[in-house]
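Take a specimen:
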Amino acid sequence: MSIRVLLVDDEELVRTGLRMILEAEPDITVVGEAVDGGQAVDKSDSLAPDVVLMDVRMPRMDGLEATRRLSGRDAPPKIIVLTTFDLDEHVYEALRAGASGFLLKDAPAHQLIHAIRAVAAGDALLAPSVTRRLIAQFTRPHPDVASTSLSELTERETEVLKLLAEGLSNAEIAAHLFVGESTVKTHVARVLSKLGVRDRVQAVVLAYRSGLA
């Protein structure tokens, strides 16, 4: 099944470049474009994208507010925030708002494509090395945060959560633990359920805030 993508950026050249890259992939379909957050919210209603590539700084409604509105829905699309700077303070807010990950605008095409596939599958965090630094920047250890939920994790589930916090994909975790990828998917699902979080990003943020990672 093709991954439906909505492009959101106020610069036409950026949208055109992204469309050219993505439309060359057989499993990705660009279903529409939006020039600001308001259009992104409206078009998500009619186009039902699986993934939204969301710029942060746009006129009228910015990407942060659009991310909050989309993430608050019952079946929200996965949102990848596009940013020019890897330490842009707006990225911290985007992750808090519910974004599934982020990508630098100067990232190579193969990384963009991998990011869309990974997020659509609910798999790995994006740009692991930078993501870890960002999460470490906007979170501070709070040992009491979700201590009850963390205590419900088994030893193996705790190990899986730590590996998630390192930015590893399911396949990489499977190789590290010498188990099958399906086993890892089961562990990840249980971790998310026990922690009461929506996705891997939220699980990793909680791991950092609790001091586990």
User: Anything to note?
Assistant: DSSP finds eleven helices and five strands in the chain. The beta strands are 3-8, 28-34, 51-55, 78-83, 101-104.
